[in-house]
Write a structure and sequence with these properties.
The complex is a heterodimer.
Chain A (H helix, E strand, L loop, with lengths): L10 E4 L5 H7 L5 E5 L9 H10 L4 E4 L13 H14 L4 E4 L20 H18 L4 E3 L14 H12 L2 E5 H11 L3 H6 L6 E6 L3 E2 L4 E2 L8 H14 L3 E4 L8 H19 L14
Parallel strand pairs in A: 1-2, 1-10, 2-3, 3-4, 4-5, 5-6, 6-7, 7-10
Antiparallel strand pairs in A: 8-9
Chain B lengths: L2 H15 L16 H23 L1 H22 L14 H7 L7 H17 L9 H5 L10 E4 L4 E7 L1 H7 L20 E13 L2 E6 L2 H11 L4 H12 L3 H14 L3 E6 L3 E4 L1
Antiparallel strand pairs in B: 1-5, 2-3, 3-4, 5-6
The chains are: A alpha/beta, B alpha+beta.
Chain lengths: ~290, ~280
């Protein structure tokens, strides 16, 4: 199906503290976990204790929310130092963050703020991704965020922007299928146009999540099960991209783990329909040696 | 200043301070107008930070009620916007804010509850350190007791309270662990205590604990945490306990060790002895 190698972990889940004990006692049928990096950039206590226990049983990937790769503030090397320390402790299969900015002037809005899609912004982001990758000594994955507004100064599509950054910075991508759907609705583009123009060899991970439907605008809330429209889009993504490690993200109204495992079964069913056993082999771990 | 820097500055000012200049930068196409698109970010910003405070200060929230707590949050968000990469630290200035701002500074209990609830967060993820055991203390030879000093677990916090903050907090908690509930109305009303009372908060085996201290224990613990040697702590206890001071000191020490408060024993004869 493909002429490139991509590491594949199977079907995973966002690690949430309410599930720590259940994971350790039940060892559920989940192939890997994704942690929110910032939640474990702490001195000690429960988060790191459980992370250490869980990583003995499951592969871990790290997902950050505060890299602020698109910000015009200088890169925060104190943050990167802490991130690198956590990477050394966890030995994740890979490390990701978002294609966005989260604040400037030293502030953090704790939101994934959209960027204007033009070449000047792309060059800015490319330069910063290269610096981050050099500092961490590994490629990073960047995730497409949901957005609710566009800029007059944008003259590229989001997918062209992302593809340009990935190619020129030599970074990888985490495609959030729900975010493509949400942004497609909010900005009136066809999610298939988006996915068809993303270089498949760069895509190492999929996110699936739920959103809130407000009639004329969709909000990426991560507090609902994955909606059927997003499952349909995931089905098409599986066909377009081949075996990509897939996980479910749930941040609010978090149900019992068993319920999320059931939801993950849906992803498995769709993935295996397209990939069969092909997706079961694992490649490299994302480090540059 | 680059175009991107200018744009981000306008966008951030619109989100944090509801400035309107950014509206002119938003693409006007699509189903909903620019003002509504921007409002999604403005609303999400305030709601997210308010939710974090509600989660971090559940009993303060219950004490104040939704309306007053929301107003406190909105004022705090403006006064102390987040500058940390993690939301974990967003509430760290709330005690400072309420003790300096009217009308909160006229109600001491608000600041004390903010302090007590925030301390649990520092207790929760403080650095790990093994605690010493009763056997470690028993193994000390008599000669070292004259210079014996204590190092305490990094999670240990001690603070004075003039209000019945611990009782109010306990009335909405089933056990001595911080809650994740965001709407909890206390059964016990806040009241002034007869005298200032110290309380400690700490972590043992991944669980967070708290308790109040008798006046003599508070003095002894403050001395011990100030790196005073065991004989000085005994002298401090002599005011109330006279000849029984060493017995009381030994009793307190046993409690501190059993509760996992002490992480190492230091004395001049043998250097640090830790676990």
């Amino acid at each position: 199906m493909t002429d490139f190698e991509r590491p594949y972990l199977g079907f995973g889940m966002g690690l949430r503290s309410v599930h720590y004990e259940t994971i350790l006692s039940d060892e559920p049928d989940i192939d890997w976990f994704e942690i929110i990096s910032e939640n474990y950039m702490v001195p000690g206590g429960k988060p790191l204790y459980f992370l250490d226990q869980i990583r003995e049983k499951y592969p871990i990937v790290m997902h950050g929310v505060s890299l602020s790769i698109g910000s015009t503030d200088p890169l925060d090397f104190n943050y990167l130092k802490d991130l690198k320390q956590l990477i050394d402790r966890v030995s994740p299969a890979w490390v990701s963050d978002h294609m966005c900015w989260t604040g400037m002037g030293g502030h953090n809005l704790h939101d994934l703020m959209p960027l204007p899609y033009n070449m000047a912004t792309a060059r800015h982001v490319i330069d910063r991704v290269k610096k981050v990758q050099d500092y961490l000594g590994r490629q990073i994955l960047l995730e497409n965020a949901s957005s609710y507004l566009g800029f007059k100064t944008s003259d590229m599509t989001e997918w062209d922007f992302i593809a340009e950054v990935a190619k020129e910075a030599d970074c990888l991508l985490l495609l959030d299928i729900n975010n493509i759907y949400v942004s497609g609705f909010n900005h009136e583009f066809d999610p298939l146009d988006y996915m068809r123009n993303i270089p498949p060899e760069r895509v190492w991970q999929f996110h699936l999540a739920g959103h809130e439907d407000n009639g004329d605008v969709l909000i990426d809330t991560h507090d609902h099960p994955v909606r059927s429209e997003v499952w349909d889009l995931y089905d098409q993504a599986c066909q377009l991209f081949g075996p990509v490690s897939t996980m479910i993200e749930r941040d609010d109204n978090i149900p019992a783990l068993a319920q999320l495992v059931e939801e993950l079964e849906m992803a498995r069913k769709i993935g295996s329909r397209h990939w069969g056993q092909k997706g079961l082999s694992c490649g490299n771990d994302g480090s540059r040696g | 200043m680059t175009d991107l820097e200018k744009l981000q500055g306008l966008f951030q000012a619109a989100v944090m301070a509801e400035k309107t200049a950014f509206l002119a930068e938003i693409d006007g196409g699509g189903k909903i107008p620019p003002a509504r698109r921007l409002h999604i970010y403005q609303h999400a910003y305030k709601a997210r930070l308010r939710d974090v405070l509600a989660e971090d200060f559940p009993v303060l929230h219950g004490m104040l009620g939704d309306e007053a707590f929301d107003e406190l949050c909105q004022r705090y968000i403006v006064a102390y916007p987040s500058s940390h990469s993690s939301l974990r630290y967003f509430g760290q200035n709330l005690e400072k804010f309420v003790t300096g701002e009217s009308p909160y500074n006229t109600q001491v209990v608000i600041g004390e509850m903010a302090r007590f609830e925030w301390n649990f967060h520092d207790v929760f993820d403080a650095p790990d350190h093994a605690a010493i055991t009763i056997e470690d203390v028993g193994a000390l030879v008599p000669a070292v007791w004259t210079t014996l000093r204590f190092e305490f677990h990094p999670s240990l916090h001690i603070a004075p309270y003039d209000w019945n903050v611990l009782a109010v907090w306990s009335s909405v908690q089933e056990e001595n662990t911080p809650s994740t509930n965001s709407e909890t109305v206390p059964d016990i009303m806040p009241e002034v205590l007869n005298e200032t009372t110290y309380a400690i908060q700490w972590r043992q085996d991944l669980r967070s604990y708290f308790r109040s201290l008798a006046p003599d224990e508070a003095r002894a613990l403050l001395m011990a945490m100030d790196n005073k040697a065991f004989p000085e702590i005994c002298e401090g206890l002599a005011f109330e306990h006279a000849d029984n001071a060493p017995v009381r000191a030994a009793e307190l020490l046993r409690n501190w060790v059993t509760e996992g408060l002490i992480s190492s024993l230091n004395h001049m004869d043998m250097g640090p002895q830790s676990q």
